[in-house]
Amino acid sequence: MPSLTTCPIGFNVLAWTAVMSEKLNPITERLKTIGYDGIECFIDNGDVAAYRRFGEHLNQLGLQSTCVTVAGPDTNPASDSPAIRAQAVDFLKGAIDRAEAMNATVICGPVHSAFATFSKREPQPDEYAYSAEVLHAVGDYAKQAGIVLAVEALNRFECYLCNTMGQLTYLIEKADHPNVRAMFDTHHANIEEKRFPDAIRTIAPVLAHVHISENDRGTPGDGHIPWDDTFKTLAEVGFNRWMTIEAFTRNDIDFANSINVWREYNDPWAIAENGLTFIKAMQAKYSC
Fold this sequence. Notes:
TIM Barrel, 44% helix
């Protein structure tokens, strides 16, 4: 992690594409010029060598990196099928291999259960136990790679196991591994949490990553997220890790369709430039 007096700031290149390729190189070069400390990219089951080349490119630019991924029905850590849970372990280990190849330090995302897969009932104790077991097992693999898994709670329309910081804290404590931590995403919290300060204080003991996301997934600061509460409380709990902008567009049609992004919010470069200015102003205001 960069040695900074404030939290390092990253930008998620999903605003352009979910595909790992050399087409990301000029994008990362411009993000470096704008002033970002690092980038975040999506990890799938692609060629490990492609992630290694990308990591070498980022190293030459002096950029750090984090990653995001999601579990699907066939790799669902909360499944009651031992075979599917075994596949979940293999999937997450593969994500760690790719993250390690590009020298990333964090893999975030809703890896507690399958994305957009619903059981038509409330979360069950066994599902939390299954998920925690998988995460604990993968935590050992992440530790040897120097990677932290930052598990993400999603809104009720995208998952059912972990919607709130209370549920996520319960799962992380049940997983009981130092390399299995939590992420706070302002977009999802805007839907699910009563008050941001309470939510942040709840997750603070296991918080390792923050996504700075506007209510409409556009430019941070342009919407109605309670940003003053967010930055003030993060400063109060002593958060000093990545603050990464996650904003979406329809640049990558397949990815956009998969997460129900049906319109453009802002131009990605406007998001990158104005979002960085906004975060730096808030960091200066609250010393975080």
